[in-house]
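Think of the structure tokens as a kind of shorthand, similar to the way a musician reads notation: each symbol stands for something richer, in this case the local conformation of the backbone. In the example below we present two proteins back to back. Begin with the first one, reading the sequence and then the tokens, and try to describe in your own words what changes along the chain.
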Amino acid sequence: MKLRTRWLAATGAVLLLYGAWKWHDDRATRFLAADTAAFVATFGAPAEADSAATRAELDELLALQATRSAEEMAAARADRKTEVRRFYGALGLDAGNPPQLPRVEKLAERVEDDVRIYVRAVKEHFRRLRPYEIEPRLKPCIDNVRGDLSYPSGHSAFGWAMAGMLSDLVPEKRAVLETRASSFARQRAVCGVHFPSDLAAGRQAAERVLLAIRATPEYRAESAAAAAELRGVLRLASLPPGD
């Protein structure tokens, strides 16, 4: 019953997001209008800072800190910026010398603009502190995160949004893209800047926003063009109409 209730709530939020796009088309570079209230209402509150659940997550982060390798920290720093090119390696492209994919990059920027707005609204509503602000033994291995809010993880949301968007273009690569998104998000816990529950909420946010974006005719048109561009570089057959 709980799962059904959550599914209905998520579906209702998607419909409201689509309605906001259709009836209040005030966006500039985005696919959706910035009407976030219904979206925020679909998220449950994170655990309180002094709760047993938070303590368990902090202990998990301390354990990750104790075992994180130099390679893991270097990978997290390399993924510090939210760029779709960080996912090209999962597609079999040369990440060090990526091809020019202007349509893919434009699509990614527009998707990211929407995801950022909706994630920020949830962050501002719950205002969860970063884990290292609660547990002083945590020493982040990524800088420039101090003062930002923790729930949901915007980094996790970006990773899952890119995996979903690129999977629309190259569905054959969905599994490897999702693996990449999972590792991209997990780095934030390895470096002590997000709770594991922040990462899960970030994925949830990305999936809900992307579902609404896919309902827009603009996205369908732009993703078809981006798919043709990317699949040409990868030397893959064109997607069948409607995919």
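Once you have a description of the first chain, move to the second and do the same.
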Amino acid sequence: MIPFVKAHACGNDFLIITDEAAADLDRAHLTRHLCARNTGVGADGIEFFSWTGPKSGRIRLHNADGSMAEISGNGTRCVAAWMSTLIDANTGDELRIETDAGLRVCRIDAVATEGSHAVEVTTGMGVPIAALKTVALANGITIQGAAVDTGNPHYVVLVENAEFAVAHQPWQVVGARLCTHIDFQNHTNVEFLRIVHDDEIEIRIFERGVGPTTSSGTGSSAAATAAIAFHHCISPLRVVAPGGAQIVTWSGTGTELELTGPAALIARGEAWYQ
């Protein structure tokens, strides 16, 4: 039996399993088994966690397909929500979480405990790097976008229609093609960006190793970076995904980006695994 906690951030859901509980198990296989929506617990990925101090920990992320990812902004925030319950964190407390993309400091902005445990968290997401990039698809379509590094790779495409279609094709189809395109050596996350106002954008997300998702913390950060750097949007910028809104604060090239959003615990339990 594998003990777990399930949490979500704007519908982007994760299981949290300690390194001790996972022991020497094949973590890719375990992740595929537990993240299966119909035959497992169901999640977009698993954050494997170990404590490194009273208010600090180390996480490693496996996507739902078993592949490893450098970081998830939402997954990191879910871990912060779980940590906050164990140490009885208060507003203003900071939790330090090491990821494969580096240290992320999560500040607890608010805690709600009635009916569930939910927190509002501001996370330092590091210094994003962005550059314009053109990608040619096999079907003759040329995509103009921005390659953005937020600790993991993203490709952000500007659209001007409410369906987020690109060249009259559904964003899900284009996202799948871009995700595994030869130009991206380790594959990439893909965001489709629609500008609502200069201080608000809307996005759709095709996540590497997962597919379409309701939200992404690093994806929201990447889309905001592209919107501010290349499309005249301003900070703080409200980023709306199907699962909810997050706020990105960024002063521009060479400065750290901050991401603010919610995370809530869903359940804790044990799962069979062979």
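Compare your description with these statements about the second chain. The mean pLDDT is 96.
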